[in-house]
């Protein structure tokens, strides 16, 4: 018996499906590591000493258009990090007397760090779960840079745009 009509079924499309994004391509370690972000930055790391005032820190944050400063000693060793959030919390606690206080009294001493070879997906997860936006990058004991949550998102969006362009070129020829 020959069928004259059969409706289109979902299983008819199973072989024709393709996936431009997978968990593997979105988290490919060979491309998505911290060093990939550091390579795109100018290498400048803004730091402040623990004995300096919060006023000095606020001026540096404003002038450099950044959201955090690394706190280092005279040898460049990482002692902590001072973010805009740290300063805002202190402003709420001590209104009118905050800016003369020392960085060491406000900074975050327990700093989450990463290495240049860490996968970006791991760094992003740590930043999200820890609710912080800046992470110093240490290469051994040396500060190699700092990555922000914005850096990670921008890197991934750029990669997706590149992938979309490649797919378009494959289609157009």
TrEMBL record:
Pfam families the record matches: CBS
SMART domains membership: CBS
InterPro entries the UniProt entry points to: CBS_dom (IPR000644), CBS_dom_sf (IPR046342), CBSX3_CBS_dom (IPR044725), Diverse_CBS-Domain (IPR051257)
Keywords per UniProt: CBS domain
Superkingdom to which the source organism belongs: Bacteria
Annotated spans, Disordered: 1-26
Segments forming domain CBS: 38-98, 107-165
Protein name: CBS domain-containing protein
Taxonomic source organism: Pseudooceanicola nitratireducens
Record lineage: Bacteria, Pseudomonadati, Pseudomonadota, Alphaproteobacteria, Rhodobacterales
